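Quick one: structure tokens for this chain, please?
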Amino acid sequence: MSFLGFCFIDLFMDKAKRIRDVLPWLEQAITKCELCPRACKVNRKNGELGFCKTGVQAQVASFDLHFGEERILVGQGGSGTIFFAHCNLGCVFCQNYEISNNDLNFPEVSAKQLALIMLELQTKGAENINLVTPSHVALAILQALDLALAQGLNLPVVYNTSSYDSPYLISKLEGIVDIYLADLKFFSSQYAQKYTQAPDYPQLAQTNVLRMYEQVGGIKLNAREVAQKGLIIRHLILPNDLGQTQEWLEFLHANKLYDVYLNLMDQYHPAHKAHLYPELQAGIDYKTLDHYVQMAKKMGFKYIDQPKQRLFRLLSW
């Protein structure tokens, strides 16, 4: 076996050891749940449900090879996405509300079943295992990863989060998560309270993004330009500047996160309960998107996603 082969095996052995070190803490944490900043204090092992209305086992809404993610995640094989039901944030305009709605139930899966899903995605040719909305089911995920690694899982693990995480949980994921895919939503506590009932979102998201960067650094690509490690930042541009895009860019700039992969998204449309808020009724036009893309370029960000929507509009002119 080559030197690189031995390094590869050592990497996954280290990841497995790290998982087993963290599992006892997670198992204890859900007995007085503080997995996310809402800190509901419920005993999920006894069937008590907090904000996310999720027990011990994860509910999986769907899983498949997904080709709608960032190009550096999709590659040739697609991103192996696992969409977990329910959410610990609950944006009123959520575009995945059919999945994230905490009043609905989806099939619960055991750790063994979730591990088999991961291995099936790898067999299908996935470039990574993309854990969508993972914060409230971190225990179930790590239990499954422990089993899947033992059965030969060797793909990068993507933690696809709203960034409304417990900083302590993020610190526990060091050495386990390869790629953080972090949403940045509201820079204002006032807006975060109004649209998510989470006034502490801005401060926690900032703290978490900096910790994620400390763990994995900027984006690292393989020879096929597929992400293997690093931080990806998503920011959904909201109507009437409710997400305060410039302030988020200035925060990233001030902390010199120039080598993250930055995706400024213009696909907002009124969904879920947005009809209750007149200020959320508008869409995002090309000029608004381009304004912020150009701003990011001038600030020195090295990797800026080029949305398909933007390319289509340019070609249609």
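Residues 3-29 form the longest helix (27 residues).
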